[in-house]
Each structure stands twice: as C-alpha cells, then as structure tokens.
Amino acid sequence: MDLSFYILGLLGVTATAIVLVIGLGSFGKGGAFHRKHSNTLMRLRLLFQFIAVVLLLIFMYLRQGA
C-alpha cells in the first residue's frame, strides 16, 4: 500500500519536471505561447509540486509504521 504512494510521488515529481522544462523553454523562446501560457504553466507546476510533496510525505509517514 505505501509503495503506491511512493510511485505516485515519483510520477508527481516527473510531471513537475516536465512542466518546469516546458515553462523554461517557453520563457527562453518567448513569443505568443509564452505570453498566453506562462501563468498557467507556473500554476500547474506548483500544483504538481504540492501533490508530489504530499504523496511523498504520506509514503514516509506510512513507512515509519505510525
């Protein structure tokens, strides 16, 4: 059971990294895509990052046996 939170946490970290790379790429390139989607990408990254941290904290809590 606790392994599923670890796997989901890793997927959250991966999703965060993907959105971060897309956001940095659009920032570096500029243009219409960046103007239209930069705030959305930042919010999405923060959401994925929050979810990943929560899932990994749940994994660590369950791992302690508490």
Tell me the β content.
Answer: under 5%
Q: List unreliable stretches of 5+ residues.
A: none
| Gyration radius over CA | 15 Å
Number of helices: 2
Largest sheet: none
Category by helix and strand content: mainly alpha
Distance between the termini: 14 Å
Tally the structural domains.
Answer: 1
Gross morphology is elongated
The sequence of SSEs as H and E is: HH
Mean pLDDT: 88
Helix content: over 70%
What's the oligomerization state?
A: single chain
Number of strands: 0
Protein model, in words:
This protein has helices at residues 2-29, 31-64. By secondary structure, the protein is mainly alpha-helical. Helix 1 (2-29) packs antiparallel against helix 2 (31-64). The protein is elongated. This is Hypoxia induced protein conserved region.
Summarize the structure.
Helix content is 94%, strand content 0%.
Keywords, separated by commas or semicolons:
66 residues; mainly alpha
Task: Give the helix/strand layout.
Elements: H1 2-29, H2 31-64
